[in-house]
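Quick sanity check, PEGA domain-containing protein:
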Amino acid sequence: MPENAKVHILENKKWYGLVTVVLVLLIVSISLYEMGYRFKGDLTLGKLGQLSMSISLPLTSIFIDQSEKITTTKDNETITLPFSPTKHSVIISHDGYFPWKKDFVIESNKTLNLFPIFVSQNATGEIITKNDPDYLRIRNGLVTVPSPDKLTPLFSVDKSASIWLEDNAVMAKIGDKIINVIQPDTIVRNLSFYKDRSDVVMFSTLGSVFVIEIDEKGNQNFMPVYRGQKPLFMKTDSSFIYVLDGEVLMQVVI
């Protein structure tokens, strides 16, 4: 080998080494990326996880990290998306319904199931007149049925959760965990689970009936189901509630 070539190699040995290291790191990074590895919040590596949601309404917009948009095309569509194991957010939006938002972190190589709530911005239903044969039965039920308390809690349909009122606080128990869901300054008059859910409750206070998620992590969604004067409500079906607001008795779709 010519002497000048040897000198050139020796002078640029560090650069050759650096280029080699960079190429190796690039190849390793590409390989790890293709295998589903991503950096986590603490800069350690973790595998992609999945987010799974069942969206009940078609033409629902799903915004991922406030940018990427997906639109559902059918009823009860299951959406499954890959996510890096870091912080993310999802917003569910449908015309005529309150938006639903959740912040979350998916664990490495795990699947997170989220269950959005669809609450109409404009309550619909019908007035039950005094001529209706069920008027007195429904009205008396609304007036006389007590709210659940600690000794006689209300259980969800699947028996996985229970709720009750205690010192005007909406309390819930899931497994061995007891949660103070909300304690408003105004008197809570009624309490029930929302639809057939075990993770969402309805309660009436002041001039409205509200829906609130039990778990406060990642944004505790809170929405009005009905707005009026001083409503009492009773749920006998997963698709509607009876509401007594003053002298007006209604069946309100939920």
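Posting the structure with no commentary besides this: The first strand starts at residue 37 and ends at 39.
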